[in-house]
Structure formats: C-alpha cells, structure tokens
Amino acid sequence: FPSHDKRFVVPLRSDMGNWFRSGENRGWMRPGELWTFDYATEHEAKNESRRDRLTLFIDLHLAQSISEVLP
C-alpha cells in the first residue's frame, strides 16, 4: 500500500480463538470494531476457533492531505 492509502478492517464474525498480530501487538478483533494499522509492519491472523471468521476489508485510495488526518 502506498503511504496515503488506508485499509480498514471490520470483523463481522470473529469468535474467541481468532487473533491478529501486528509487530509485537496481538489481540482479538471483536465483531463490529473498526481497525486499521500499518501494513508495512509484519502481521498475521489466525483462527483457532471452531467457526470460520468473516471479515470486511475496506481499501481507500486517499489524497495525501486527507490521509494525514486519519489514524
């Protein structure tokens, strides 16, 4: 992703046992939460629950001036 592009992640179904790691940070993305992070950082996701996870990814190509005010 270019530095001014943003990817937002919204878990739609995510049971306990699903986890996400970005760099040294690891946690559970709960359903309905909105996440974003630096995709240049090493990251991974794993589903150790019994059900499939369902996630919505929203990719935005933004003007640099707009991206500077977003997380």
Explain this structure.
This protein has one helix and five strands. The chain is elongated, with a radius of gyration of 13 Å. It is mainly beta. It has one helix spanning 64-67, and strands at residues 5-13, 18-22, 25-27, 43-47, 54-61. The strands form two sheets. The protein has a three-stranded antiparallel sheet with strand order 3-2-4, with no helix packed on it. Strands 1-5 form a two-stranded antiparallel sheet. The mean pLDDT is 87.
What share of the residues lie within helices?
under 10%
Beta strand %: 35-45%
Order of helices and strands: EEEEEH
Query: What is the global morphology?
Result: elongated
- From the helix content, strand content and strand pairing, which structural class follows? mainly beta
Q: Strand order of the main beta sheet, please?
A: 3-2-4
Q: Total number of β-strand segments? A: 5
Unreliable parts: none
Largest sheet: 3 strands, antiparallel
- N- to C-terminal distance: 15 Å
Average pLDDT, all residues: 87
Number of helices: 1
- The value of Rg in angstroms is 13 Å
